[in-house]
Amino acid sequence: MTYESVKSLPEHAQEIYLKAFNSAFNQYKSSAKRRGNETQEEAAHKVAWAAVKKQYEKSGDHWVLKSSHNL
């Protein structure tokens, strides 16, 4: 995913992404904690997107908050 992909998220989703990315980036400093040849940054991006997708879903060209029954 690109920086533009993150910028297209609603502000709240960007906050979720940033918090998850920073946490995962610290957690995956050791290559032993990552899968295969994945870099620390790649692992952190995957975790961050997963965190966003727990609360948001893509609807057309936009990201929207999932309805409360889906959370």
Structure description:
The protein has 71 residues and is mostly helical. It has a single domain (3-70), classed as Orthogonal Bundle (Rna Polymerase Sigma Factor, Chain: A), CATH 1.10.1740.70. The protein contains 3 helices and 2 strands. It has helices at residues 3-7, 11-27, 40-55, and strands spanning 56-59, 62-65. The chain has a two-stranded antiparallel sheet. Strand 1 and strand 2 form a beta hairpin. The protein is elongated and about 35 Å long. It starts with a helix and ends in a 6-residue tail after the last strand. The mean pLDDT is 90.
CATH class categorisation: Mainly Alpha
Number of domains: 1
Strand content: 5-15%
The low-pLDDT segments are none
The tally of strands reads 2
Counting helices, strands and paired strands, the structural category is mainly alpha
Order of helices and strands: HHHEE
Fraction of residues in H or I helices:
40-55%
Which strand order does the major sheet show? Answer: 1-2
CATH architecture annotation name: Orthogonal Bundle
**What is the number of helices?**
3
Overall average residue pLDDT = 90
Give me the CATH fold name.
Rna Polymerase Sigma Factor, Chain: A
Q: Please name the fourth-level CATH homologous superfamily.
A: ChaB
* Global geometry: elongated
Distance between the termini: 24 Å
Q: Describe the main β-sheet briefly.
A: 2 strands, antiparallel
Radius of gyration: 13 Å
Protein name: ChaB family protein
Pfam families: ChaB
